[in-house]
């Protein structure tokens, strides 16, 4: 089984550069597709070939399947890596790629579909023996059902819009007396926001941690996990800082979670990289969703295991077996990643524009994954993440000190970034103690206002 | 000890032609350690690392007294590709090309075809006028926004 000779990178920015680097190291030729706004992007400059596929808007470029397939055709790519976001979890695209005789570097369209529908995913996980957030079996349509379900699920409960998102159409009830009000209000809000007032119910976790497990499976039946990542530091459901391992888990919990997860993934017959996301509270794990792609925060898992996840993705897609089994995987030290977005560190208003000065930190245990360079113009059309600063240390304490040191060296001028926020976080006593949950960051930011 | 340096005039001429056809401003070609770099500033003779060949200039790129557009993609008469694919200059192999230099075209007239995923897309003119430049050759790949022709 040979590796691919040419991979088309169907993405942009930092992750496209990450994929390009993995390809180069594997001796694979690279094709960068880009919008007109990204003609000067670092990975476009470094790629062996580049094809402009559309104007700046994502729907006319990075989300435009015919444009990407057209580029694959004219360059003769034999595989496509979809990166994160965009078409990476689009089963239609995955199918299209395979129908055109190319390899989609990711799981099968069936598995993408299975995990993309939140209700199906939950059902699948229940069948595979993975604990899920206790909830109603389907939608709650009457007040009687609401009361009965709440009793069964256990308080506090959360009523959620089936078509919902962004925290809208969600109401909490802390006891029986609050259920009906919450039910009625949730339905009204759901109707107003999504045009559909269908709701369901779940147990409301008050102070959970977001714990996710990285898995990797080949086409020869080998499944491994690379440990967990704690991504509880979030603002508006966007991760800001991630660390591995989680300061909230002990070795026993870690091991049992890893076992459950790899068994389930094995039963699924999954291939490639994937991440199972859980909410963790009071010693219990609750499955939330599975992402069937590489994730932004994958570097911290790489740092603690020494495994190049993107390279392994490519090799698995080419049919090669994983060169290690679970017992070969050793976890060393602690890693933290700071997402550096082009945003105001206080208001979070996006700050695109020209980077007038750029100096990345270096030194032992520091890794910078970024497509930025001095003179680069951050376009306004896409998400604002411009860099990931990753620190690794023997202990969590060493890692934090190293991260603080590196943040002090990092210079990005011309645009605003979240760097000052990260500098505050790295010195915050709760963060230093590892004492936080998914609401902590927003609560802390609100206090400072 | 340096090896004898053989100048491949044919290769340089070919590269210079490609520059003009595709509206690129520079080409760097490397093969087995040998490297040729050819660059063009429109209206100035193509500059090469080995030979300055004014003879490769075609009349359309001749320096004119008045300052002309140096970047064809910004020329007011340029028509750019709305999609990625392979450009074909005739409706089918062997048939005459849709247009040639000097032709007068009208709005909506088919100028060429861009094919992607086995679908032939007719690229129609958005302006009426004379075809003064054709930048692409038959069966060549085109990307989004690539300059195809100039209609004045």
Mean pLDDT of chain A: 94
Question: Could you tell me which chain pair has the largest interface and how many residues each side has?
Answer: A-B, 17 and 12 residues
Q: Structural class, from secondary structure content of chain B?
A: mainly beta
List the strand order in the largest sheet of chain B: 4-11-9-6
Helix proportion range of chain A: 25-40%
The helix fraction of chain B, in percent, is under 10%
The main pleated sheet of chain B reads as: 4 strands, antiparallel
Overall geometric form of chain A: globular
Provide the low-confidence segments of chain B as ranges.
Answer: 44-65
State the name of the first-level CATH class of the largest domain in chain B. Answer: Mainly Beta
Continuous helix count of chain B: 1
Shape of chain B: globular
The helix tally of chain A amounts to: 15
Oligomer: heterodimer
CATH topology of the largest domain in chain B: OB fold (Dihydrolipoamide Acetyltransferase, E2P)
DSSP summary, beta strand count of chain B: 11
């Amino acid at each position: 089984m040979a590796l691919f000779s040419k991979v088309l990178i169907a993405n942009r920015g930092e992750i496209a550069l990450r994929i390009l680097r993995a390809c180069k190291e594997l001796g694979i030729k690279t094709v960068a597709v880009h919008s007109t706004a990204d003609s000067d992007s670092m990975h476009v400059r470094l790629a062996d070939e580049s094809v402009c596929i559309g104007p700046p808007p994502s729907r006319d470029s990075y989300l435009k399947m015919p444009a990407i397939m057209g580029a694959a055709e004219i360059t003769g790519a034999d595989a496509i890596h979809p990166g994160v976001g965009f078409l990476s979890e689009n089963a239609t695209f995955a199918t299209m790629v395979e129908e055109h005789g190319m390899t989609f570097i990711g799981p099968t369209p069936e598995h993408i579909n299975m995990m993309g529908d939140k209700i199906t995913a939950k059902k699948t996980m229940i069948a595979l023996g993975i604990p899920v957030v206790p909830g109603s079996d389907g939608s709650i349509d009457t007040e009687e059902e609401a009361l009965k379900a709440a009793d069964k699920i256990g308080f506090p409960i959360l009523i959620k819009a089936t078509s919902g998102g962004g925290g809208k159409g969600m109401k909490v009830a802390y006891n029986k007396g609050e259920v009906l009000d919450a039910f009625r209000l949730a339905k009204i809000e759901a109707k107003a926001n999504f045009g559909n007032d269908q709701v369901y119910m779940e147990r409301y976790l008050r102070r959970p941690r977001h714990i996710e497990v990285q898995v990797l499976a080949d086409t020869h039946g080998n499944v491994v996990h690379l440990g967990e990542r704690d991504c509880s530091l979030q603002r508006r459901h966007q991760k800001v800082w991630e660390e591995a391992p989680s300061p909230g888990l002990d070795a026993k919990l870690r091991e049992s979670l890893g076992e459950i997860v790899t068994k389930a993934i094995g039963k699924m017959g999954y291939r490639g990289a994937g991440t199972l996301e859980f909410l963790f509270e009071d010693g219990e794990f609750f499955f939330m969703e599975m992402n069937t792609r590489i994730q932004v925060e994958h570097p911290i898992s790489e740092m603690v295991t020494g495994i190049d996840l993107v390279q392994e993705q490519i090799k698995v897609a080419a049919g090669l077996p994983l060169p290690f089994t679970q017992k070969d995987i050793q976890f060393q030290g602690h890693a933290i990643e700071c997402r550096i977005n082009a945003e105001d560190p206080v208001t979070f208003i996006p700050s695109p524009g020209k980077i007038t000065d750029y100096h990345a930190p270096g030194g032992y245990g520091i890794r910078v994954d970024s497509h930025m360079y001095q003179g680069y113009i951050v376009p306004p059309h896409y998400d604002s993440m411009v860099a990931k600063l990753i620190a690794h240390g023997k202990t969590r304490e060493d890692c934090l000190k190293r991260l603080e040191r590196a943040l002090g060296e990092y210079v990005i001028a011309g645009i605003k970034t979240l760097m000052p926020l990260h500098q505050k976080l790295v010195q915050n006593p709760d963060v230093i103690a590892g004492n936080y949950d998914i609401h902590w960051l927003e609560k802390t930011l609100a206090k400072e206002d | 000890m340096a090896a004898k340096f053989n100048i491949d005039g044919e290769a340089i001429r070919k590269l210079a032609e490609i520059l003009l056809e595709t509206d690129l401003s520079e080409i760097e070609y490397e093969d087995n350690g040998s490297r040729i770099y050819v660059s063009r500033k429109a209206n100035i003779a193509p500059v090469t690392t080995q030979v300055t060949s004014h003879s490769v200039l075609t009349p359309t790129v001749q320096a004119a007294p008045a300052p002309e557009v140096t970047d064809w993609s910004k020329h007011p008469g340029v028509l750019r590709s709305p999609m990625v694919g392979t450009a074909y200059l005739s409706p089918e192999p062997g048939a005459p090309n849709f247009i040639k230099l000097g032709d007068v075209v009208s709005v909506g007239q088919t100028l060429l075809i861009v094919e992607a995923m086995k679908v032939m897309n007719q690229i129609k003119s958005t302006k009426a006028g004379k075809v003064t430049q054709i930048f692409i050759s038959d069966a060549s790949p085109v990307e989004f926004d690539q300059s195809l022709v100039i209609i004045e």
